[in-house]
Structure formats: structure tokens, C-alpha cells
Amino acid sequence: MDADAIMRYVLIAIASTAVLIIFLILFFIVGNGIKLFKDVDPIEFIFGTDWSPSDGSYGALPMIVGTLLVTLGAIAFAFPIGLLAAIYISEFANPKVRSVLKPLCEVFAGIPSVVYGFFGLVILVPFLSKMFDENLLFGSSWLAASIILGIMALPTIISVSEDAIRAVPNSYREASIAMGANRWETTAKVIVPAAVMGISAAVTLGIGRAIGETMAVMMVSGNATIIPDPLWNIFSLISTITGTLALEMTESVVGDTHYNALFMLALVLMVMVFAVNIVAKKITDNMKQKFNGTAFNDRSKIRAYATFVDTIQRNKKMVCKIGSFILIFTMSWMILSLMISGLSSLIASIIITIGAYATLFTVSRLSPSDREDVAKCILVANMVFVLLLLAIIILDIVIKGLPNISLDFITSSPSMGGREGGIMPAIVGTLELMAGTAVIALPLGILTGIYLAEYAKDNKLNRAIRGAIDTLNGTPSVVFGLFGLSFFVIYLGIGYSLIAGWATLSMMILPVIIRTTEESIRAVPNELREASRAMGATKWQTTYRVVFPAAIGGTITGAILSLGRAIGETAPIMFTAAVAFHPSLAKSIMDPVMALPYHLYYLTAEVPGTTGNQYATATILLIIVLSMFVLASVVRSHYNKKIRW
Question: Helix, strand or coil for residue 420?
Fold first, then answer.
């Protein structure tokens, strides 16, 4: 057997690791969860409204409803803001501004979820309490959780929507402008309708991100296992599946009914997220077929498509208007009914709806150029709002955190349960977690990416590998934490330790490394491969001596971004590696460690009167994570300049 054949089998074995991981996750989650139904009726679990483990009641409906409501609120907040930002970046910003705005918006994705939760707890919740002092009895609420999750979903919606809008062929824009339409009319009536599939995918992916979020929602939602009354009461306390898992898993006894119920909750969460991701993938695949096909190169088909869209627009114009006004009235009445009496809320809702109609009527009477000016003002104001959100979150933490950072704080150990002392063990523990994760995940991810890009054919095994990678990519971080707890900590008997944290985080970031490596390698022109093979090099020699070095920039960028994500994760390590208070460094890989994300959560949730240390810890964590994102951007820019194809 020659070296090429050997390497092919080695790569197949490594790539198949993703299938093994998914099998193990499902085996342990389902295996632990299904035991619940020995003691609890499945119907009672899904539709029961009482979750009281101490009393033997396991009704999951409040958490399921809470997860859906918080997600719905997050998308209602993020979708219009994200879509308008994407339209501005794609269609109205000049290239230099665009090259700055999109990376800035993507910074939202780099902020750790525990930092979002901290910001929500110390800034957003008090702000909402003052604004709605008669309605928000506890500060934490469905409203606060949805706003925080909405901000976290913004980068996904902006990035995917902007990509979809820019993917619309220029022939659409040229044809519309040639017929006398201005830029706004072209955008609103041609470009956005043509990109609706991609925009739908952005919303769906945003929903998937919101459903699987743990720390941020847990810190601001109130974690009350109740169904809001009325159902649209955005001021109510609420609980989500992820928050319940994070709060209660450490309190449960391995193997008892409560423990099994939490794993069944995790299974319900996985089903919800997988369903959303399947829909998103289907939409994205349809969009790729639409824009990559020959239809857009056929002028007759372009005209036919434009005629079809125009017909739909004419026939549904009145229906859409009526539906919009009904929606405005209904949403206004639902919100106002929570704050003022029934009749007053009804009258106010009618006034708001009439005002919306009057505004639309006034705008429709403007000249096309004036309407474009109004649209530009709205788009610019929305973009400023997005950047302002980013600035408020980062600057508030950094400005309040920097004065509390000193050399002693960085180099000393905590004392008095974190009330005094520094965070040196947490910093070192975080870096140790990152280093070990890199050692495990990078070789597996890069080699799997090479296999998929260079060796994989369309057969059952490779489809299974790709399906497993997609499944891993959509798995919520808290589920990885539960699997790490049940498999590494308990089943293998490793206990809370560095190595358990490394293995869990590696599985979580593996799909990102695989995808970025595969895409980078696929971007290398075939001419390089052909030239190398023509000179007598084998396929494997061509791959590692020619193709991979040419794709190294994208691979390094993906590795840095994935490790940056690992540094900021809390849920996976709180079940496997991190402890709240461990003033000395780990002596071996079998010891637990402190870590910045979990330490920040611990200080915020469990140690009152440590505001200075909380801000300082959040600042250091933010600086480390965002520095990695900046490094990734620098690496990407450096290698992009060297590309000659």
C-alpha cells in the first residue's frame, strides 16, 4: 500500500471522529434522559406546568414556553435592526466604510455570553426597572432576556443578510436603474425580495443562536419556572431550558429522577435547535441553487422572475398593508394593556395605528428622491444605533473596569471567596484551557477539513461525516457541558479537571475549524494542484506542500476565532473543569482550575459587594477575547494581500 493510500485511510479515520462524537453525545443524552419515563409520564413531562423537583413534579412546559417566548422577543428586536443594518452595509455604504462596518458588527459575536449577562444584570436590568418601575417588580424579566439575546443575535442576522443581499446579481440592479428606479426603490422592490431566502436563513440562524444561549439569559431572566400571565406579559419573570440546566444540574444527584429530567430537557433543547438548523440549511441550500444556477444568466428568465415578483407585489399590496396595521394594533394593545387600563390601552392602540397609517400615507406622497433621502436617514440612524449598542457595552465595561485593574490584581490569588485579592489563577486557568483545547482540536479539525476538501467523494460515509459536523455546529454549548459531565467526569471517572475541559471544548469548536479549513483549501485554484501533479508529486505531497500552505491564512484565522470562542465559554467548563474558588494553580491535568468566564459569573451571582472586581474581571476577559478577534483580522488581511489568484 503506497503512502497516498495510507494517508487517505488515516484522514478517513480522523474525519470519522465527528460521527463518533455525535453518536456518544446522543447516546449519553438520550440514555440518561429516557430513564426519566420510568417515574414520570411523558405527557406529564411535556405538558405539565409544575416544575418542583423537591416535590417530585417535573412539568417542562414553563421552560419550553419560556425558551420560545424569549427567542421570539429576541428576533422581534434583532430582525428589523439587523436587516436595516445589512441593507445599509451592502447597498448604501461605500467600500471603505463597508470594510469597517461589517467587522465592527461582527465584534458582537466575539463578546462572551457571560459578559453580555453581566452587562444585562448591572446596566440593562436597572435601566428597565427605572423605565417601567410600576411593571417590573423584580428587574429581571422576559423583556431583559429578549433584549440581551437580540443583541447577541445581531451579528448573525447582519452578516448572513448582508451576504444574501450582496449575492443578488448586479444585473438586477442594472435592469431596475435602467427603468428609472432610484437606489432605494431598487433595493426595496428588487434586491430585498430577491434575497428573501437568504434573509429568512439569517432569521432562522438567529433563532437557533437564541434558543441555545445559556449564561446571558440565565443572568437576566429571573429563572422562575412559570408561564407568563397573560402570555404576552413581557415584564414577567421567565425561565428557559438552558438556564434551568445550568442552574440545577450541579444540585442534582447522579442517576436520580431530577438528574434524568434535566437530561430529557437537554434532549428537548437539541430537538428544537436541530429543527431550526435543518430549516436554515434547507433555506440556505435553496438560496445557493437559486444564485449559482444558470437562471440568472438568462435575460428572459430575469425578466420573467421580475414580472412574477411584480405581480405578487401588486396582488398582495393591500393585504400586506392591512396585515401590517392589524399587527401594529395588536402588538400595541398587548404591550399597553400591561401598563394601563383596558379601554385606555384600546384607544391608545387605535391612535398609534392611525399614526402609522398617516406616516405611511405622508411618505407615499413624497417624490422618489425625497423617499430615498428619508430611507437613507433611517438606515444611517439604525446603523448608528447598532454601533452605539456596541460602544455602550464595551466602553461601560472597560471604563469602569480599567481603574480596578492593577499589577497586584493580575498577579495575586483571590481571597475571602473572591471579595479581595486578584485573579491570577483564573487567567492562568483560562490560558491553560485554551492551550490544551488547541492541542486536541487543531490537528483533528485541520486534517478533517483537508480530507473533506481534497479526498471526500459523495458517498454515504462522507455524507454522514458532513451531517455529523453540521449537527455538532448546531449543538448548544450547555449540551456539550452536560455530555462532558456525564461522559468524561462521571462515566470515565476523570472528575472535574483540565483534561475534561479540554476534551469538551475541543468537541465544541471542532466544526468551526473544520469548516474554515475546508473553505480555505477549496479556495486554492486547481492550477496549483495540476502544476504540482505534473511535476510528479503525489496527491498527499501536493496537498501538504502546495495546497495547504496556500490556504494557511484562512486556516489560522479560523483557528484563532474558534479558540477565542472557547476562551469565552462558560457552560461547557462549569460542568467539567472550572471551580468557583481555587486559589492555587493546577498541579496536573487531573486538577480543576479557575477560569475567567466562570469566575465572572460566580462574582456576579454569588458574591455581592464586589462590583469593582466584577468589572475588572469582565474587562480582562473582554480584552483577551477581542484581542484574538483583532489578531484573526490582521492574519486574514496579511494573507489576503499575499494571494495572487
Answer: strand
Q: Which residue has the cell 387605535?
A: 350
Q: What is the pLDDT of residue 616?
A: 94
* Alpha carbon 302 to chain centroid, angstroms: 35
For residues 569-579, b (16+ Cβ closer than 10 Å) or e, as one string?
A: bbbbbbbbbbb
Per-residue pLDDT at 550 exceeds 90: no
Domain 3-35+408-642 matches domain 72-169+195-294 at the CATH topology level = yes
For the chain, domain boundaries? 3-35+408-642, 72-169+195-294
Amino acid at residue number 350:
I
Count of Cβ atoms closer than 10 Å to residue 62 Cβ: 22
In CATH, the architecture of 3-35+408-642 is Orthogonal Bundle (1.10)
Contact between residue 82 and residue 157 where contact means Cβ atoms under 8 Å apart: yes
Each residue of 583-611: pLDDT tens digit? 778 888 999 999 999 999 999 988 888 88
Q: Return the CATH number of the domain spanning residue range 72-169+195-294.
A: 1.10.3720.10
Q: Which of 612, 561, 564, 603 is nearest to 581 (CA)?
A: 603
DSSP helix/strand/coil, 441: helix
pLDDT at 324 (0 to 100): 76
DSSP for 234-282?
Answer: TTS-B--HHHHHHHHGGGSPTTSHHHHHHHHHHHHHHHHHHHHHHHHHH
Helix (H) / strand (E) containing 490? none
316-369 tens-digit pLDDT: 566 667 777 788 888 888 788 777 777 788 888 889 889 888 888 887 788 888
Please say if the pLDDT value at position 266 is more than 50. yes
